[in-house]
Specification:
The protein is an alpha+beta fold. It is built from two helices and seven strands. The strands form two sheets. Strands 3, 4, 5, 6 and 7 form a five-stranded antiparallel β-sheet that branches. The longest helix has 23 residues. It is elongated and about 40 Å long.
Length: 119
């Protein structure tokens, strides 16, 4: 004999015990994809440096421009709380230096948040 109520959802039915498991699935799947702040910063740093060097080479008219990360942190996004990486990057090239604030949402896309400041 089976205990618990049965609920009908479309073509299938679920017991109240099964419903509890189904309600936990989003939580379990979200937790299984978690990475630490350090891991996320390391994953995004490569594309942040590449994005910055490309932009600085164009703006400074200096193909030899080299970028280095000066500051980095994880920032909780709004409203869902998705983390993103934020970097302060210094670029040196052709006798000049420039600083950029970079924001990376994932390993493929980074954007310059503010206009660069010259050193």
């Amino acid at each position: 004999m089976q205990s618990g109520r049965r609920y009908r959802f479309g073509f299938s039915s679920v017991t109240s015990r099964g419903g509890a498991i189904i309600r936990l699935l989003p939580v379990i799947s979200a937790l299984s994809g978690c990475v630490t702040d350090a891991e996320l910063l390391a994953e995004n740093s490569r594309i942040a440096l590449q994005t910055t060097e490309t932009r600085a080479a164009r703006e400074l008219n200096c193909p030899q421009a080299k970028a280095e990360i000066v500051t980095k942190k994880e920032v909780p996004g709004q409203p869902l709380g998705e983390l993103y990486s934020e970097y302060g990057i210094r670029v040196n090239g052709c006798g000049r230096a420039v600083f950029y604030d970079i924001e990376c949402r994932d390993q493929k896309i980074c954007a310059v948040r503010e206009k660069p400041t010259l050193d």
